[in-house]
Amino acid sequence: MPPLWIAIIIVLIAHYFLAIITVYFLMKDKGLTKAIIPWNIVILLLPLLGPLSYWVYRSFQKKK
Length: 64
Description:
Layout (H helix, E strand, L loop, with lengths): L2 H28 L5 H10 L3 H15 L1
């Protein structure tokens, strides 16, 4: 198996678990509202960058 395929598989597996944890915390923080729909789309469609962007956003929101 080429190294590129192995890297893609590893990234997608990591994204799967990171996305589940991030969506859990998103729902815990904001509840079930229409405002979380864009965040869900970003988290699920952008591998690794979607969940990381929410965690950065969340860290700045918690400071306020």
